[in-house]
Specification:
single chain; about 180 residues; mainly alpha; Arc Repressor Mutant, subunit A; 8 helices; about 0% strand; globular
Length: about 180
């Protein structure tokens, strides 16, 4: 991939990738940083992304792996640093109407559920592609999507459920 093509790829998909990673992390700065690191790794590769069939999917995978690696390291560091100290629990007030409900709901569900929701609804990937990307069977992706929808519904219970032919057609097309 020539230098200009990488610049075009950056212009075409940077915002979309940041949005997808943000939905996964619920932290805009971390999402931007992870996507930037993914592009930096693409630039550092010999031949950039010339040998990659879907450069945007490659960048998304790298960015999500960057986030996962950081979370693992952070968890390990927290475990080491807090080993001999009591953990102080801070009670936060309930969220007000000015907070983003969907972001908070995504942050409240387990990581594997959040991951499939982001890839399916934000990245608009089909179940089979998500399964291949995550290295799990399609049935596992479907199960996680179902459980994630249930968990999200519990957090977003005030919103009416969409009904009618538009919903059923969209759900049928998504698998």
């Amino acid at each position: 991939m020539r230098d200009g093509a990488l610049g075009e790829l950056y212009s075409a998909c940077y915002r979309r990738l940041v949005t997808q990673v943000y939905a996964f992390t619920t932290d805009l700065t971390e999402a931007q940083d992870a996507v930037q690191e993914a592009f930096a790794r693409a630039v550092a590769r010999p031949g950039a992304l010339a040998d990659v069939a879907n450069p945007e999917a490659w960048l998304r995978t790298v960015a999500l792996n960057v986030v996962r690696r950081r979370w693992r390291r952070r968890r390990l560091l927290d475990t080491i640093l807090l080993r001999d100290r009591p953990v102080a629990r801070v009670v936060e007030p309930p969220p007000g109407p000015e907070r983003a409900d969907v972001r908070d709901a995504l942050a409240a569900i387990p990581g594997p559920f959040r991951e499939v929701v982001v890839l399916h609804y934000f990245a608009d990937l089909p179940v089979d592609e998500i399964a291949a990307l995550l290295g799990v069977p399609p049935g596992t992706v479907k199960s996680r999507l179902s459980r994630a929808r249930t968990a999200l519904a519990a957090h977003l219970g005030d919103y009416p459920e969409p009904t009618g032919p538009a919903r059923t057609a969209k759900e049928a097309s998504r698998g």
